[in-house]
Each structure stands twice: as structure tokens, then as C-alpha cells.
Amino acid sequence: MAISKVERLMNLVIALLSTRSFITADRIRETVYGYSGAASDEAFSRMFERDKNELRDLGIPLETGRASSSDPAEGYRINREAYALPAVELTPDEAAAVAVATQLWQSPELITATQGALLKLRAAGIEVEAPDGDVAITSTAALPGLRGSEEVLGILLSAIDSGRAVTFSYRPARSEPYVTRTLEPWGVVTDRGRWYVVGHDRDRDDVRTFRLSRIGADVMPTGPTGVVRKPDGVDLRAIVARVVGEWPAAGKATVWVADGRATALRRQGTVLGPRTVGGRSGEEISVDIGMFDRLAREVAGYGADALVLEPESLREDVIARLEAHLAPVEARKGADRL
């Protein structure tokens, strides 16, 4: 059965985004659903040319190049970094305009989207005056990179809005014990898919950055309201970038993959050599980090068939995702035993 042009284009975009090598037109015809039904080579060629032009007209960065050193045929791929949307930067006036627009979003169908929009603005350190006072934050589960830290984020943002300090237990690394910290929070920002709170650490009497996933569930506001505010001229994103800038944009990750598994991930990297992990044979591969959150999500999706060896921050992120995924399963097992 024939499929629509929109579905065919979507299949093509997914295929071209899923590989770092170039895919030939013949390979696309064989593997991308929507092209195999072309009656002849000429019909496929016309269809494919129209689709390529359509993608370029839409602003999708379609690249061409040789599929391999041994194959002179022209291939195609989408530049992932150019395809990803840049961070949205709003001036205070623009942020205020968004806040005013939320007055129109008061129906039950739209209120969750309204709350999410204001949450993201505040997390970026942008002052937003919500109409008729504050807009309650009832759900943060849909925001990427927050799994397991939703309640922590909600409490921190509430404290920032009210100008209060917070206390919480924190561990700099998974292998270290928790210690209690008292912070005057200035804002929450994201970097490579991870969330950080920035502020003045009263215990260290200095500016500090804390990763939300390492903050304990005991976080709570303390002290009077209205006494904490972000100093003028402070760039929260610049502070986080200096603290967590662990690798250059073209950094590499070393990942172990089991034999015969994680084929798509294996295609993205360069084989470094064989290695046995936990009695299973496999290979070490070097993979471009690119977008941190995307790679962490992909590796975690392979479960026990893929393991990050370095950098440590990526390894910890993948482990945290797996633990968060297993937590509800373990809870259900515990309930079944009762």
C-alpha cells in the first residue's frame, strides 16, 4: 500500500539522522519505507530528487559525500549538529511578553503547557512575572534530563522565586558520601542535558554549582523570604560552562559494546579493540559525544549490551538513567511480595 509523501519524508529524515556515514541512493531505496514501491529506476530517481529538494527547501542540512573509500557512489546524510535547534535566548522584555501570553492559556487543556513554559524560562535564569501572581508548577516529568529530580527542581525554583536559601544533602560523586550544604540559589540552568543550580554557598562562602541529580531528596527552604537575589551582571550559564566544561565540542567517549549487539551505536564509532566485560566478549569503540543527552539516552537504551568506559560524567549519567528506569520495576516487585 502506498504511503503519503509526509510519511516517506519522515522516514528519510530518520534514516539520514541515524548514521554518521553517507548512505547511497540504492541503499535508501532498499531500506527506507516508501521508496521500494517505485515502479522503475527512473521513477525512483524522480521521486528521490523531489524529496531531496523538499528537505533542502525546509532548511534541513542535507550533505553529500562518498559512502566509503572503496565505493565511489555518492551518498547522503543529515548534519546532526546543524539540524539540532540552538538554545532559545529571550530578553527580559520578550520573557515578559511570553508571561503575558499565558493569560490566554488558562483552559485545562493548556495549563500544563503554560506551567512548563514558565518553568523553562525561570530555569534559564530569566525573570518572569506571571500574571495574577505565580503559576503553580505541578509537573516537571516531561522535561528531559530530570528523571528522578523533579521534586528537587520544583523546590529549588520555588525558593528562587521567594528569595529564600535552601539546605540539602549533596555528594560530588557517586562514590562519595552525602554532606549537608546551605545555598543561596540564584538560578537553575541546563548544560548538555544535565541540570545545575548556581548560587552562593554559605558553607564555603563562595559561588558554587551543584548538579541536581546529586542533590538528596531532603532539600528544603530555610530562613526568611526576600533575602536572596541574583547579583546584577551575573551570567549563570557562563558559571556552569566554566565548572562543567569537561570536554571540547568534538570530544570522544569510549564505550564497550557486546558482540553482535548495539549495531547502530557500533556504526557511529571506531573500533579500538576487543574487550571482555563481565564474562561477555565485545569491543571498545570510540564515539563522538556530540549532544551529551542524546548519546547518554542512546547508550542507556541498550541496557547491559553497552557500557560507557569514559568520560566518567557520561558513565554516571547512563547509570542514573538505568537506575531511574529500574526503580518503578523494583517497587512493583516489592508490592507483589507484600
From TrEMBL:
Domain WCX, first and last residues per copy: 252-324
- The WYL domain sits at 151-215
- Which Pfam family name is an example for this entry? WYL
Transmembrane region(s): none
Q: Which InterPro entries match?
A: CBASS_pafABC_assoc_protein (IPR051534), WCX_dom (IPR057727), WYL_dom (IPR026881)
Q: Which domain of life is it from?
A: Bacteria
The name on file for this protein is Predicted transcriptional regulator
The organism is Mycolicibacterium gilvum (strain DSM 45189 / LMG 24558 / Spyr1) (Mycobacterium gilvum)
